[in-house]
Amino acid sequence: MSSESKEPNSQHVISQPSLKHKKLPFQIHGSTIECHGDDGIEVTGDVAPPIHVSTTFISDAPESYGQEYSRIDTMTRRRVEAVIGAIEGGQAVTYSSGQSAATALIHCIKPRRIYLNAGYQGVQFAFKLYTERQNIEDEKVQLLTLEQCKEIYDSEKKELRIDSPSWRPADIKEKRALDLIWLECPNNPHITLVDIEWFAELAAQTGACLAIDSTLSSPLGLRPFEHGAHVVMHSSTKYLAGHSDLLGGVLIVHSSLSDVLTCKLLQERTTDGPVMDMSRETDSQHVISQPLLKHKKLPFPIHGSTIECHGDDGIEVTGDVAPPIHVSTTFISDAPESYGQEYSRIDTMTRRRVEAVIGAIEGGQAVTYSSGQSAATALIHCIKPRRIYLYAGYQGVQLAFKLYTERQNIEDEKVQLLTLEQCKEMYDSEKKELRIDSPSWRPADIKEKRALDLIWLECPNNPHITLVDIEWFAELAAQTGACLAIDSTLSSPLGLSPFEHGAHVVMHSSTKYLAGHSDLLGGVLIVHSSLSDVLTCKLLQERTTDGAVMGNFETWLLLRSMRTFSLRVRRQCQTALIIVQWLEKQRAAGYKVMKIHHPSLESHSSYSLAVRYLRLLPATFSFELQSESQAKSFARSLILCAHATSLGGVETLVDWIHSYNTSISPTLLRVSIGVEEPEDIIQDFEQALKQAQ
């Protein structure tokens, strides 16, 4: 398999950590590696490894981060990847499920011609969904049969047969017979094996990646790298975990490819984000649908924080006041011909509960994901937009769209990101109609009247806390048939109700205000009731196929956090107003503060839009000092508050964003206000401002 190194899309170069193990005078094996394969990764006196739950990490120096954000890297993830990698003899990359591991490899390689030998239905669906997403005119993805593989390759002469009818003209030109060979060995459920070494020869001749799903054999039973494999995949839910209480997946890359392929997998895992109703017929026997929630019949409506505490009442019959933590990955069925709950990647009671609560708060149907990044990626891939308007300050979402356009851009079918000027050119807001004569239209789009497919708005925007006129974009969406999606993370459901202004989908990084304790990764899409029968069902189906589900414990933590959501966020927003007013006094006095970005101030560019749209002003804001050195010195001098990325947690965080996003001014600091007393935050800011040189 050959590949070329690519520059990462972000300022962060994501690489497999350099593991500094104990220097032993002898070689260790088997179960000793299992016990000691992660020795030396972190300096701690604990015999048993500590449980790291923080989503963000303090940085002593504003201009450089060690660990930054748990979607990128954690010590616990480093440990388990070191152990599994050492056992298999390669470099390991972990995922939120076996399904998301398989999906990650497919999207990383972007194969056009595939040989697939998989008994596991989930992997079959992953490949089926990939081919549906990719098939554009002459660039159709082709699944080859074993007979076609044998026609292409002469195993006696060990060379390709160019005269084989299995070749397509474009593939002959590029000598691109195969890109990916995926073997499940042993195969599920018949436990059949294939001749791996024959396929290794075929891979060597065609330049294909040979990937072995070795879940059923485990590393003890089969050593795929010894027989020519490039990548080994395990659903770690199964034998690696072995207690039926977690979902996970892992890809192990052979050392010959690890510098390029492992780095690319790590980069795309960070970008895609899968780190550890009315039913619709599918090709599966299983019909995946949003559960029908049977709540208590109350003689009166409930609101706000009462919904947060009782929005999931009646989903499961239990005498527990606090919801139980369901950790089982599989469920007993009394009748062989029918399952109720079947497998936790599809559905769990805890997931039903938290989706019911969040859905009720926003007024739609909620679908949760393993991170905000994976929620954004899920909507993009579900809609498959060709023409997009993107207004996003958050760099992760920008990278998700960039990666999507790179994956999709094929000849005349290029995905196009439109500017605001192009949107205004194609839509006459006075007449409320499209301008067909606009130069922003492409010929194919005029024919289909396909001006826009997806409008993505981050509102308020990060880090300048600017807003957009959502209702103008709702009109544009109505005229063009586009989906209007609002990333409302910074405002939270307390601050903004996007559905009241015409949105079709609302997205939250639930890592932030919904969870609010900096101890879990999560994301959620909430679909408006007018689309929920079709779109929610499709999102649920594709989440099951792609595998980007929240872990059981993270789901329960999110549900627990929702009980205090209003209490936390109201306090944070009130405190933010006090801190902003204090900073404004410093600015007015000419004391180091040059500008404050918060829509409570009449000087802010979005003040009038905030009055129109926001019910509660956000607890996140940014401000600028006189120089880069002052900004860095301020962040470095904080005592009570921490210099760390992310936002929405109970602790106040200050982030010098320029260290990882150079498009942001080096004088700017973003502040996420916590639940501390306002006077204590002011004391810390005051002493840091004095030291800012």
Automatic annotation (TrEMBL):
A Gene Ontology term for the protein's cellular component: cytoplasm
Biological processes annotated in GO: cysteine biosynthetic process; transsulfuration
Cofactor: pyridoxal 5'-phosphate
Keyword Phosphoprotein assigned: no
Entry GO MF terms: carbon-sulfur lyase activity; pyridoxal phosphate binding
Keyword vocabulary terms for this entry: Pyridoxal phosphate
Claim: 4Fe-4S is one of the keywords in the record: no
PANTHER family (UniProt xref): CYSTATHIONINE GAMMA-SYNTHASE (AFU_ORTHOLOGUE AFUA_7G01590), TRANS-SULFURATION ENZYME FAMILY MEMBER
UniProt protein name: Cystathionine gamma-synthase
Organism name: Adineta steineri
